[in-house]
Amino acid sequence: MVLYNITIIIEENIQESWLSWVKNEHIPAIMSTELFLSNKLLRVLDSPNEGITYCLQFIADDFTKYTNYIKIFGQADALKQQQRFENKFVSFSTVMEYIN
User: Fold this and answer.
1) Can you give the residue ranges of every domain in the chain?
2) DSSP E strands, 2-98
């Protein structure tokens, strides 16, 4: 199992708009690819950064499904967020493997 984590630090003045977009458009679009089993949206409570920090997490069966998402959909999905919230956020992603 693979966890794809995207950490996003957004400006406070766009928080409500961003949250609405993520919940109603972004997450459903990613889940509609059927490459991920589940997702979570979390808010970081003790972030040292200015702004508000969120984590989007998507779980895939294996690394191949994650790489397929990145190859086919990743760039377009990132561009949608960039165009909609230009210069109002920073983000980075990490990919982790579950260890039993």
Assistant:
1) 2-97
2) 2-10, 38-43, 52-60, 89-97
* Angle ∠(13,23,56) on CA atoms, nearest 5: 85
CA 70 to chain centre: 12
pLDDT tens by residue, 30-82: 999 999 999 999 999 988 878 899 999 999 999 999 999 999 998 888 888 88
Round to whole Å and give the CA distance between 69 and 64.
9
Give the CA count within 13 Å in the CB-facing half-sphere of 100: 1
CATH fold of 2-97, please? Alpha-Beta Plaits (3.30.70)
